[in-house]
């Protein structure tokens, strides 16, 4: 009999993870090898499990919640809930306790404690992360108005917005990421199921990124416009990273210590219009080369752009309204945010135009000093604006990570 002490999802059998291209016959053979000798009565020796991205595990407990500084995963789900009528602080606390316990189990590659759907039965943790946050309306609905952070004040209106309120905001927000689609869906289903009777789904969005290991070397992600996206992201090695991204221990309110604020925007990319531009025109809109993300003034992706450099005709090499120029921290009073998005594609509209773009998620210690000043400047003259449309928006307070034995948000809900 197999060793029952080993988690059923610890033994990985993903033939594709070997990096060998298999045809239909080869794929079947690979599966047979992985399975050979592992069944009861086979009489053979159990094959060693294949190593893959499925074995990678992210810890649930810690100073910060997972899914903020975790490397971007291949699959993601964003889901917002509103508390049902009659549900208050007590019910919300019980829900966060259940959600936290389930997230801890699933992130360790284990089954849910009860009524597991077995969707991800054969998979490992696959870098699963589950992150929880509170919207502004959560506090009035739970009698916790005095604990609502000032940083959760509504975002200002921007002239380029086309916001659908039905797909914006929410009392509770959950971000799910994983490097396996079934693992991500399994967590989504568990979160939704456990909310029944306490909170109803307000909106839900699905996203994706390039799968880890798809490139010969680690690379900054590309978005659906084909542009490298995230070059100037703050890095955990930066001296001021924690100061910019996380609420300090002495922060106000105290329950947000170690937490961060997430701005979530569904940004539709008008790809048919974008793809009519020549590559040169696309590069001028962004201010960087499409091939490698280097600034138009030369070098590599990480080379500092020479914003004052001009061409033979005296024109700025990086146009004055180029996206890369406008978003630079030194052009925005040092404003910085950690961008951690997913791409999305939700089919086509009646005219055959793709409903696709970016599920923009950015993290900062204070959105009024991070997202807002940058977006205000973009709103006033970004060359990229004619090719994108902000269709939904949300702002959420994401508390610090839970210590062992705690649940996320406990310092707020049991204060």
TrEMBL record:
Sorted UniProt keywords: Heme, Iron, Lyase, Metal-binding, Oxidoreductase, Peroxidase, Signal
GO terms of molecular function: ferrochelatase activity; heme binding; metal ion binding; peroxidase activity
Keyword Metal-binding: yes
Region (Disordered) residue spans: 285-306
Domain Dyp-type peroxidase C-terminal: residue ranges: 220-402
Cofactor note: Binds 1 heme b (iron(II)-protoporphyrin IX) group non-covalently per subunit.
UniProt domain Dyp-type peroxidase N-terminal: residue ranges: 65-209
EC id: 1.11.1.-
GO cellular component: cell envelope; cytosol
Cofactor(s) of this protein: heme b
Domain of life of the native organism: Bacteria
One GO BP annotation of this record: iron import into cell
Main location as per UniProt: other
Pfam families, per database record: Dyp_perox_C (PF20628), Dyp_perox_N (PF04261)
NCBIfam families associated with the record: Dyp_perox_fam, tat_substr_1
Reported function: Involved in the recovery of exogenous heme iron. Extracts iron from heme while preserving the protoporphyrin ring intact.
Family membership noted in the UniProt record: Belongs to the DyP-type peroxidase family.
Annotated protein name in UniProt: Deferrochelatase
Lineage: Bacteria, Bacillati, Actinomycetota, Actinomycetes, Kitasatosporales
């Amino acid at each position: 009999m197999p060793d029952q002490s080993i988690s059923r999802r610890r033994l990985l059998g993903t033939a594709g993870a070997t990096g060998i291209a298999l045809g239909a016959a080869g794929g079947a053979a690979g599966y047979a090898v992985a399975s050979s000798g592992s069944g009861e009565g086979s009489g053979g020796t159990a094959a060693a499990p294949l190593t893959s991205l499925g074995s990678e595990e992210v810890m649930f407990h810690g100073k910060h919640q997972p899914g903020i500084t975790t490397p971007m995963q291949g699959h993601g789900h964003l889901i917002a809930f509103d508390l049902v009528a009659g549900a208050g602080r007590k019910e919300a606390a019980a829900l966060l306790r259940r959600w936290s316990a389930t997230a801890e189990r699933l992130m360790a590659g284990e089954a849910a404690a009860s009524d597991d759907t077995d969707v991800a039965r054969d998979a490992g943790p696959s870098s699963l992360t589950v992150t929880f946050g509170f919207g502004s309306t959560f506090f009035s609905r739970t009698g916790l108005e005095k604990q609502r952070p000032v940083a959760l004040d509504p975002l200002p209106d921007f002239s380029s917005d086309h916001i659908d309120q039905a797909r914006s905001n929410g009392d509770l927000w959950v971000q799910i990421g994983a490097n396996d689609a079934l693992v991500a869906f399994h967590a989504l289903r568990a979160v939704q199921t456990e909310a029944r009777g306490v909170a109803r789904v307000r909106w839900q969005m699905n996203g994706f990124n390039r799968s880890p290991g798809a490139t010969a070397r680690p690379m900054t992600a590309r978005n659906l416009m084909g542009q490298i996206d995230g070059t100037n992201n703050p890095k955990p090695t930066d001296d001021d990273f924690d100061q910019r991204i996380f609420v300090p221990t002495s922060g106000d309110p105290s329950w947000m210590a170690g937490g961060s604020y997430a701005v979530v925007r569904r940004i539709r990319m008008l790809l048919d219009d974008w793809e009519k531009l020549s590559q040169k025109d696309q590069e001028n809109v962004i201010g960087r080369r499409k091939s490698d993300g280097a600034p138009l003034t030369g070098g590599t992706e990480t080379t500092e752009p020479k914003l004052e450099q001009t061409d033979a005709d005296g024109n700025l090499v990086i146009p004055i309204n180029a996206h890369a120029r406008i978003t630079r921290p030194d052009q925005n009073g040092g404003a910085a945010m950690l961008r951690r998005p997913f791409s999305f594609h939700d089919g086509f509209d009646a005219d055959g135009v793709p409903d696709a773009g970016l599920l923009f998620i950015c993290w900062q210690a204070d959105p009024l000093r991070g997202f807002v000043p940058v977006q205000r400047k973009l709103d006033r003259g970004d060359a990229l604006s004619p090719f994108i449309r902000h269709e939904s928006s949300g702002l959420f307070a994401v508390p610090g990570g839970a210590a062992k034995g705690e649940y996320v948000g406990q310092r707020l809900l049991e204060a």
